[in-house]
């Protein structure tokens, strides 16, 4: 039974908003650089210091000066010539490798530097003049026939888009992002257009631009469609290189072919992915990557790929398609284990998956309410009782199943943290706050489930614990939600006490 005044369906709209925020907490990995910094600028001179020349022992040099051997001078000269020859070859190779990367003409470089100067604080952030200079640099590249897929050309376009955004010319920026995405998408789909060794890096740039464009996107449906297109392109690339992912799809296809009952859930064998088998802990209690896994197929766009998948999940939630969001998130968590993603991100994704299961339970609870309302409005003659009972049983079973899976997701994170207590003490030492956030979110989730079951004392304790952890890690979004739920719990406790008296 639901506590009075706290039916799940009444909080459905707020949960949409909170869950969509929660699912984007993982979409900003700290190791993704600014978009215009796709590749660091190449210097014309090597900054690497020459290796120190080994010193000869003093006694050898002194002996050589006192008693020189025949042909010593000739041998020293040949060694010197050999050294000079090797140095020249090394310099030529270095110059060739850098000349391939540096495709920006000198005239464009000059204008580029002027544009950077204009947007700096020294020029009072003159974005309008900087924009004009960047456009001039791009036109210079066009006249010099610079490859539009090159890093330097793309970097100028991204700076132009950045200036548009800073000047509140959002439509112009979005148009430029779309042109870039179309160019990369077409190049990746045309055989031979992009060298096989460069495909991963081009996909990485494509996904970065996609993520940036979605930050200012206003049309949910078009954004969702565009996101899916580019995700499928990256997925095909991974599939062609990853035997694990190929096996995953084959197993899923086999599982679906074996299911004959349309009402049966293909994920009935649902299991959580947070365990010592998937997340490795060293002797000091730190979570470490499993370097034995062959996750090279996901490189170098692994972070961008999972960030994009999280965005797709958030888009599904925005369009109130919880089933699609849930399906996407289940797959994402399993793939994160295959790709050997940072353990903290796996933990947080597992906690977010629990939130999605709870959202689906709320949706099904609302469906139950509609069925009950329909029964009360129609007479027994108009209502097919057989169909009604079957529908109620189906919806109720799925609601209970979602609540059970939500509890499994939250409990797996909390249990993992309890079994490996040292990770709690290393949270502040880690750059990634996902570990602490996943524990706080799971504790909050268990509190919501306890509130749903009417166990108010337990819910109150869990909400207080999640508030403490949220404050420790500056998890402000969760802190606000947990404080609201704690306040509701206190009101319900007071009402229950009054009714007993």
From TrEMBL:
It comes from the Eukaryota. GO terms for molecular function: misfolded protein binding. GO terms for cellular component: i-AAA complex. The lineage of its organism: Eukaryota, Fungi, Dikarya, Ascomycota, Saccharomycotina. This is Mitochondrial inner membrane i-AAA protease supercomplex subunit MGR3. Keywords: Membrane, Transmembrane, Transmembrane helix. CDD domains: Mgr3-like. The chain crosses the membrane at residues 78-95. One of its GO terms (biological process) is protein quality control for misfolded or incompletely synthesized proteins. The keyword Transmembrane helix applies.
């Amino acid at each position: 039974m639901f506590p009075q005044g706290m039916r799940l369906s009444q909080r459905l709209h707020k949960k949409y908003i909170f869950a969509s925020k929660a699912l984007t907490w993982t979409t900003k990995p700290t190791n993704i650089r600014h978009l215009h910094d796709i590749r660091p600028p190449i210097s014309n001179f090597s900054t690497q210091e020459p290796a120190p020349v080994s010193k000869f022992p003093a006694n050898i040099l002194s002996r050589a000066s006192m008693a020189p051997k025949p042909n010593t001078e000739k041998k020293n000269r040949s060694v010197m010539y050999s050294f000079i020859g090797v140095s020249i070859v090394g310099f030529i190779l270095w110059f060739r490798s850098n000349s391939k990367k540096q495709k920006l003409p000198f005239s464009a470089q000059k204008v580029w530097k002027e544009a950077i100067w204009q947007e700096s604080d020294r020029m009072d952030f003159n974005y309008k003049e900087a924009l004009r200079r960047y456009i001039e640099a791009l036109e210079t590249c066009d006249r010099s026939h610079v490859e539009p897929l090159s890093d330097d050309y793309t970097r100028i376009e991204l700076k132009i888009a950045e200036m548009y955004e800073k000047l509140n010319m959002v439509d112009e920026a979005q148009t430029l992002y779309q042109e870039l995405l179309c160019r990369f998408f077409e190049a990746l789909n045309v055989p031979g257009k992009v060298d096989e060794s460069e495909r991963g890096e081009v996909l990485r740039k494509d996904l970065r631009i996609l993520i940036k464009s979605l930050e200012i996107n206003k049309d949910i449906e078009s954004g969702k469609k565009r996101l899916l297109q580019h995700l499928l392109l990256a997925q095909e690339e991974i599939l062609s290189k990853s035997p694990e992912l190929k096996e995953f799809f084959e197993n899923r296809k086999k599982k679906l072919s074996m299911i004959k009952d349309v009402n049966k859930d293909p994920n009935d064998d649902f299991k959580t992915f947070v365990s010592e088998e998937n997340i490795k802990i060293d002797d000091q209690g730190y979570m470490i990557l499993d370097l034995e896994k062959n996750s090279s197929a996901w490189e170098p766009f692994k972070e961008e790929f999972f960030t994009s998948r999280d965005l797709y999940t958030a888009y599904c939630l925005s369009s109130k398609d919880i089933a699609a969001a849930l399906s996407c998130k289940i797959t994402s968590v399993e793939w994160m284990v295959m790709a050997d993603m940072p353990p903290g991100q796996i933990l947080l994704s597992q906690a977010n998956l629990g939130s999605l299961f709870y959202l689906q339970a709320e949706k099904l609870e609302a469906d139950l309410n509609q069925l009950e309302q329909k029964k009360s409005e129609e007479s027994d003659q108009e209502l097919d009782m057989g169909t009604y009972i079957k529908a109620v049983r189906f919806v109720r079973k799925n609601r209970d199943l979602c609540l059970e899976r939500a509890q499994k997701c939250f409990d797996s994170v909390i249990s993992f943290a309890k079994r490996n207590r040292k990770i709690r003490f290393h949270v502040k030492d880690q750059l990634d706050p996902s570990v602490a956030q996943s524990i706080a979110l799971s504790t909050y989730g268990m509190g919501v489930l306890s509130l749903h079951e009417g166990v108010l004392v337990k819910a109150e304790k869990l909400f207080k614990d999640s508030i403490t952890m949220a404050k420790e890690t500056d998890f402000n979004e969760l802190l606000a939600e947990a404080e609201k739920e704690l306040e509701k719990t206190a009101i319900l406790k007071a009402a229950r006490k009054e009714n007993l008296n």
